[in-house]
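User: Can you write out an input/output pair for a complex, sequences first and structure second?

Assistant: Here is one pair. Inputs:
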Amino acid sequence: MENLSFAMNGGEGPRSYALNSSFQRSAFEAQKRLIDEAISENLDPTMTFTSSSSKDLITIADLGCSTGPNTFIAMHSITEAIKNHYRRHKLLPAHQTLEFQVFFNDQVSNDFNTLFKNLPPNRSYFACGVPGSFRGRLFPNQSLHFVHSASTLHWLSRVPKDIVDRSSSAWNKGRIHHTDAPKEVGEAYEAQFKEDLENFLNARAEEVVGNGLMALQIPAAPDVVADDNKEIDPGRVFELLGSSLIDMARVGIMTEEKVDSFNLPIFYSPVKGVKAILEENKYFSVEKMEPLNLETFYAAPNVYTFVSLYRVVMEDLIKQHFGGAIVDELFDRFTQKVVEFPDIMNLRKLKIVMLFVLLKRKL
Amino acid sequence: MENLSFAMNGGEGPRSYALNSSFQRSAFEAQKRLIDEAISENLDPTMTFTSSSSKDLITIADLGCSTGPNTFIAMHSITEAIKNHYRRHKLLPAHQTLEFQVFFNDQVSNDFNTLFKNLPPNRSYFACGVPGSFRGRLFPNQSLHFVHSASTLHWLSRVPKDIVDRSSSAWNKGRIHHTDAPKEVGEAYEAQFKEDLENFLNARAEEVVGNGLMALQIPAAPDVVADDNKEIDPGRVFELLGSSLIDMARVGIMTEEKVDSFNLPIFYSPVKGVKAILEENKYFSVEKMEPLNLETFYAAPNVYTFVSLYRVVMEDLIKQHFGGAIVDELFDRFTQKVVEFPDIMNLRKLKIVMLFVLLKRKL
């Protein structure tokens, strides 16, 4: 099966990622203190290239950057934190200055034209766009000092192949995700997540210099979700979307087979699963791993905003499978279901764990 | 006056740069031997970063790359020439391999989405896009080993301001270029060209490592054009376009003022002018400077192809000034004039000099 390639909605219209990424931004706000700490506790100034006698170069990559503005806010915070760290500890000789080169990476289908048009004019870094999947190599050997990737690693590189195989015990009939599915379906998702995260780590291990840092924000699930109406599994959102599709198949808008062959390539791994994969990797040490508190930063103001947040990230994927004609009706039906189940918009109940992870490349 | 920012036509339609850049490609074919020679005679393997014990990194930038495919052909040739050079002279220890990172640069308004989509899947380099004007800094200090820029430096960063100033002796009334204009107009173009080329060289001087190379293809004019029907000044093409605009103003499609305030920011410098600017620059030595023989590589097959070659590079600029509504009629009228003066399509007569220049960054 071919690897998936899709992207957040481009442009700057009402359904663009640029205007519908406040949830992702709230997670960045929540991690800001942790990034500052990570830099001041872990940044090794001897790892940077000294390209000449007068300049010291720090290279940063944002993997899965989409079109902005979140990536610009993140890159600004990181470069400022590094500058402050150097200044505070007088890490640069008086005649030297720091230069930054920032690599903005996303899938080839990402709208890089919009990203480039919106680059902050007063940025203090040289900007580059890097198209391609971050599951594989994107950069030269030992060429990066700091890697950031936020809300990207829960996307799988492909739908696990067994779950669309009718002859497999993991065939995921009548659902678009593993929530409430037989355990084989969840296991197939989990195996794919593990393979993808390992590929990500192994590619970065080649690219990040010794002592280089990776700050990752990984959407995950609690190890246990209380089975009462006080806690809601994050997969419930996909279940509502899936049941909207099934309703549409029932009234003949599409075939049941079409829905059966569609599965979301998203996995909110239990926290302990993420931890195990990271600790098993021999190239990076886990310097920090803690959940961000999103509640204080984000609450969807209303159902339309909530639905938009999901639409902007899923629309491209849905169009690729079902065509564009069904999208409006699908999200109308999904909106209805959210209205009937408003608790799902409440982050105190919907148990998405946004894990902040700081990794350091071993020497 | 603000600097101009415009780009070649994007996408892949019938009027895209991607499908209308055969002239520019012919120039690259003609320079291929010169690039190979430049690399085998001048490439200093000690200038590259040794990022680790096992990899040697060579960074290449194509400045003004547009959307491809010419830039991909050029980057392939350059990386192959470098690989062959290393292999032939056994410049790499047995356990080392070469890595390439290629930076594709053009204006922010360039269609990078199309560029990225068409990147050769089997390329042997890591690819980045770098948006912004090459008159200023784009890359960190001493971070480039090889710079290529083809058919870009005859574009000025702006229209010389005196030529649109009614009170100036350089006011360019009734023309869109300096061809056949009073000498003050030509001098204003020349001064802008000099400033722009110097800015380009000074920015690159910061970015290119010692002994690093720049291979430039600069469209220029002969120092003297014979004043008979055997030779045609390259500015004649713009004169035909300008007279088409004036005809349209005469029949009331636009005002005369609108045409007077439009001038092409293009200058085919006489060869000796280019030579003087390059030799004056204290950061680069001129290793080679010779005209490419385009005649053997390119002849416009017919008038429509010839007009398309100009349309694709000028359309954005014309739309910005006149709006999009006049473009079709303008190029219809221009086509008529080319039909009446077919010698202009003959490269034996139209005296564009495509200068190949090899510069080396002094240590």
